Amino acid sequence: MTSNVPPAALDSYHAQGFFILDGFALPNVGEKMFEDVVGVVREADKTGITPEGMLIAPEAQDGLTGINPEDTISKVFTLHDRPVFSSFLRDERIAGIMNQLIGPDVDCFLSQFIFKNPGAWGQPWHQDSFYFPFDPPRPIVGLWLAVTEATLENGCLHILPGSHAEPVHEHVPDRRPAANYGYMEIVGRDMSDRQAVMMQAGDLLVFDSHLMHCSTDNISDGIRAAMVYHCCAADTVDLGFEQFDGFKNPMHRFDPLLRSSQLVG
Asked: For residue range 220-257, what is the model confidence (pLDDT) as tens digits?
C-alpha cells in the first residue's frame, strides 16, 4: 500500500509527535456519529441497559444539568464495531496512515466519543500510553476527529510538541475534588511550550501515544464533541491483567483493522 501521508505531515509526526489533516472528513460524518451515540445514551437511560461491551461514563463533577441524558455524559467507550464509527475507521486514507505509522498488520483497540458539554472540566496533562500497559509498548497511534469546532472557549486540546520523545512520566490521580474516574495527571513537568489545537469539524489530529496533552474547561454555551480511536500493531498483548492485580481494562477490545496492508471488514 502506498502511503497517503503528506511528507510534511510525516516529518511533523516524527519530530513533533503529531500532525493535523484539515477537512479530513465532511462535517456530516461527525453529525452521524453524534446522532448514533446520542441514541445509545438515550436508550440506555430509558431501559437501564447499556449495549454489551460499551461503557457510558457520566461527568463526576457537581452542578452539570441538562434537558437530555447526554447533557451530563462525559464519554462513551467501545464504539468501533458500530457501522458509522467502523466505516470511518475503514476509510482507505486511514488505512494508509496506519500502514505508514504502525505497519501492515494493525488493530483498533479503543474508541471513545467525547461529549465535553458546557461547564465540563478539561482533562489534565497526561500521556495516553500511561493507560496502555502493552507489549510491545509502541507504536500506538491516536486518531482524534473533531465532531464540532474546538476552540479556546469550549475546551480544545493543548499539546506539548516533541514530548513524544520522552518516556512515560509518573502520573498521579487528578487532584481536583470530584474529578472524573480514571483521570490521572503529570505534575512537575514544565508545560510552558504548550500549543493549543484549535480545529474545525472534520479536521483530524493524528498523534503518538507518548505525546503529552490536556484539554481545558468548556466555558462556552455549546458542546465540544470529538471521536477518538487508538490503534496498535496486531501482535500487541495487553499486560494490564498482570500489572493491575488481575484487572484488565474492559474497554480494550482488539479488533482487526489491517492485515497485510489490507482493510479487514
From this structure: 999 999 999 999 999 999 988 655 555 667 889 999 99
* Amino acid in position 125: W
φ, ψ of residue 121 to 5 degrees: the values are -75, 160
pTM of the predicted structure, to 2 decimals:
0.95
Nine-digit cell string for 165: 520523545
Residue 2: CA count within 13 A, CB half-sphere: 2
Nearest to 255 by CA among 109, 118, 133: 109
Residue 219 to residue 230: CA distance in whole angstroms? 28
* Contact partners, residue 27, CB within 8 Å, separation at least 6: 201, 202
**First vs last C-alpha separation in the chain:** 17
Which three cell numbers mark 76?
Answer: 462513551
CA nearest neighbour of 199 among 128, 257, 133, 147: 147
List the beta bridge partners of residue 174: none
Separation of alpha carbons 191 and 85, rounded Å: 33
Q: Is 206 left (phi over 0), alpha (psi -120 to 50) or beta?
A: beta
Alpha carbons 236 and 136: distance in angstroms, whole number: 6
